[in-house]
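Entry type: protein chain
Record version: 2
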Amino acid sequence: MSYFCVVKIHEKYIRRCIQLGENGLGNTAPNPMVGSVIVHNETIIGEGFTSPYGGPHAEVNAVASVLDKTLLSQSTLYVTLEPCSHYGKTPPCVNLIVEHKIPKVVIGIQDPNDKVAGKGIQKLRDSGCEVMVGVLEKECRKHHRRFLSLQEKKRPYVILKWAETNDGFMAPASYSRSGNPEPYWITNTNSRQLVHQWRGEEHAILVGTQTVLEDNPKLTVRHWTGINPIRVVLDRTLRIPDHFNILNSEAKTIVFTEIEDDSRYVKGIEYEIIDFSKNMVRQICDVLQKHSITSVLVEGGAKTLQSFIDDSIWDEARIFQGDGNFGEGLHAPRIKGTPIAKKNIFSDSLTLLVP
């Protein structure tokens, strides 16, 4: 068999690993959503992906799915990311691979985490295992972009999202809104359901004070199935009333503030002190990294979104455009980026940008 054919076969199985890994989207953080397959005589005999955080990793689930374990010593294990070599919530995956005498391992990309970073590969090679690294590397990096952002950029993967009218407004003039804090919808129900799906795919969601005061959002996935993201709120002087939705117990919530007064804190809410007179975005990213948050969906408001844009700290922008006009109100953020996709969602349009 030619080298070209061998490479294509490896790519075929790593591509299947990526498909499997996607099943962990929104469930594995802060762990990466790894996929793994085990192949014997060109037949897949085992598959697995990373369990929700604290559970078994992809390789462990793949090995467990193999009915005849005696075949493992004649098989090849494929995996999107280097197997771990350290004890965390679970034992090292390399130990299991060595224990079952799996003779060959094909890896999409090396793990940049200092606890692994080539150590798993070396341990496998020291045990006599043949290891190949870098198959479908570009695709695996894209698949693991959230995890890699935290490891390499030392910040979460940042997704900006907003909705604007045809004439470029995010919200109407204040006098046209009702007296009660509630959302003012620009997009249709299908677009709003898609946003709830996105929330379930990301580790955290972030909004500013004014958005909370005007909309009283819940920031949950109530119109979709999934885990609620960690809610991150900017509230410099603790202006948000205690009874607002964002401060309930539906999801873990982190509040950024400059007020160091425990007596004003809501029970069950985590508070982080930052200096709002300095670069706010970088401080936020530093704290989110401390919490091992791999991705954050920034939903508003306009000032908060513009701060991330101005500091060039964003990886994707997802911009809805409704079919209405306000004529006046709060202008949408100004952003420059490369469009990578555009589609219609009934009466709305959605544009995806990258820097």
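Comment: The CA atoms of residues 4 and 25 lie 32 Å apart.
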